[in-house]
């Protein structure tokens, strides 16, 4: 017997790329921040890295076409969550907690939906976390060291 509420949750989680894209669009408009645009460039960079790694590793998915290693969804959502944790944990800890829980549910859904194996999502998540830490460190140390993080209407 199938659990209909679980199917509904998984259906929403399968659409994460659209949810994250819409949220990113509205945050660009809301913040008008060079820091947020820098984040978006990092987001695109990690997505490109995921696609490149898939082409190099060529490990198949557990079901369906294409390559699965690393999980691009896991890599990208963990990049988003980790970068957000670095940038906003002091100002909005409740929102950071929500983003973190959402990102972990996306990673879990990739295995539950049989789009990826556990190792594929773990590698994707790890690469996403490391990419975000590197990207945030570069931003805070070299690129925009004097500009505060995620302040609306900052330069």
Number of separate structural domains: 1
Radius of gyration: 16 Å
Strand proportion: under 5%
H/E element order: HHHHHH
Task: Please count the helical segments.
Answer: 6
Cα separation of the termini: 54 Å
Helix content: over 70%
| Largest sheet: number of strands, sense, barrel closure | none
Uncertain stretches: 150-155
Classification by helices and strands: mainly alpha
Count of distinct strands: 0
Principal-axis shape equals globular
Overall average residue pLDDT? 80
Layout of SSEs?
Elements: H1 4-13, H2 16-31, H3 34-57, H4 72-88, H5 93-112, H6 118-143
Task: Provide a short characterization of the protein structure.
Keywords: Membrane, Transmembrane, Transmembrane helix. With 155 residues, the protein is an all-alpha fold.
Q: What does this 3D model show about the protein?
A:
The chain has 155 residues and is an all-alpha fold. It has one domain. The chain contains six helices and no strands. α3 runs antiparallel to α4 and α3 packs antiparallel against α6. 32% of the residues are buried. The C terminus is likely disordered.
């Amino acid at each position: 017997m199938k659990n209909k509420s679980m199917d509904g949750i998984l259906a929403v989680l399968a659409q994460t790329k659209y949810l994250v894209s819409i949220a990113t669009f509205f945050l660009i408009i809301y913040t008008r921040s060079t820091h947020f645009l820098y984040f978006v460039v990092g987001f695109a960079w990690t997505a490109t890295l995921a696609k490149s790694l898939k082409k190099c590793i060529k490990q198949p998915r557990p079901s369906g076409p294409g390559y699965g290693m690393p999980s691009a969804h896991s890599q990208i959502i963990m990049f988003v969550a980790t970068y957000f944790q670095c940038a906003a944990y002091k100002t909005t800890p409740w929102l950071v907690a929500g983003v973190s829980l959402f990102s972990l549910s996306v990673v879990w859904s990739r295995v539950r939906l049989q789009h990826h194996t556990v190792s594929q999502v773990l590698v994707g998540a790890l690469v996403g976390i490391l990419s975000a830490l590197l990207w945030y460190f570069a931003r805070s140390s070299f690129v925009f060291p004097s500009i505060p993080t995620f302040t609306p209407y900052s330069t």
